[in-house]
Amino acid sequence: MEKKECLECEEPLKGRIDKKFCSDYCRNAFNNRVNKEGKNLIRNINNRLRKNYKILSELNTTGKTKVTRTKLYDKGFDFQFFTSIYTTKTRNTYFYIYDEGYLPLENETFLLIKKER
Known about the structure:
This protein is α+β, with helices and mostly antiparallel strands. About 35% of the residues lie in helices and about 20% in strands. It has 3 helices and 5 strands; from the N terminus they run H-H-E-H-E-E-E-E. The protein is rod-shaped, with a radius of gyration of 24 Å.
């Protein structure tokens, strides 16, 4: 009979024939190590979305506000991160981070809006 070892610490396994880890600690450590890169990517994207959302929320206190691109950049806004795009019948394209959105206007200005719930 073949002796199986823990996938994390390589200690001999006792118990069920399909057992892969000697403890919950080893199972968690193994899965955290294997999924580290994917989790880091997701965490970084969520952090960017959270920062963009906070910036739009702080600048748009009335529900509709106009701001310049410079003001958004100065606050650290990243235009590459948003959660959805909405195009109206008149071909205006709104970019949303959850319920906070912006519409690019002329002369490097943006209309900030909050989606009604």
